[in-house]
Design goal:
It is built from ten helices and no strands. It has 202 residues and is mainly alpha-helical.
């Protein structure tokens, strides 16, 4: 039953962003989701708390959580037998892969992040999820048991990622080439100026 509920929640999440992009509606109702997914009103209300439908972060958090899980699973497979790439290269690869997952939803992200005030709000609402992703990424790359060091690194990479997301949202192309170039530059800046000792190991 739990798996079925999760699958249904994901269908509703996907429907939410589909409606958002196609209609650019500022208010999406349960009825809109029911129609899009061909699911009864009562069934939807069992899955989604009534006060959550008007909270744009409810579905955004579901989406980011799912994409991050897919990213880390794929990244783990990609580096499982990689004994050549440096820590720097692996972190860049992991962040790049995250943006590749985000690309499909770029239009929705742009709508939800329009204006400085909204972007700041998004940053604070998603701070924990971004931190968890960076922490998971570092576990795969370094597996460092020192929690304090990992926390510092996660925060630094989170700040770096927020800078890159600005580039991602402003870029009108349907690729992440410019975003990756900036990611690479920001990672090099961390190395070059040594703001956080040991953030990126060569």
């Amino acid at each position: 039953m739990k798996t079925r509920d999760q699958d249904l929640k994901w269908r509703l999440c996907d429907a939410y962003f589909s409606i958002l992009v196609s209609s650019k509606k500022s208010l999406i109702t349960i009825e809109d989701l029911c129609l899009q997914c061909n699911i009864s009103y009562d069934e939807v209300k069992k899955i989604i708390p009534e006060d959550s439908i008007h909270d744009k972060f409810y579905f955004l958090k579901i989406l980011i959580s799912r994409l991050d899980k897919e990213t880390l699973e794929e990244f783990k497979t990609d580096i499982s037998e990689d004994t050549i790439s440096s820590t720097y290269d692996k972190i860049l690869e992991g962040l790049t892969l995250r943006f590749e997952k985000f690309l499909e939803y770029k239009s929705a992200f742009k709508i939800m992040s329009k204006g400085t005030e909204r972007r700041v709000e998004n940053f604070f609402k998603l701070l924990q999820q971004n931190y968890l992703f960076m922490s998971g990424l570092l576990d795969l790359v370094e597996n460092n048991p020192n929690c304090s060091v990992k926390t510092i690194k996660s925060v630094a990479l989170n700040i770096l990622f927020i800078k890159a997301i600005e580039v991602f949202l402003k870029d009108e192309s349907n690729n992440i080439d410019s975003t990756v170039r900036h990611l690479d530059k920001y990672l090099k800046d961390i190395e070059d100026i040594g703001v956080f000792s040991g953030i990126i190991k060569k």
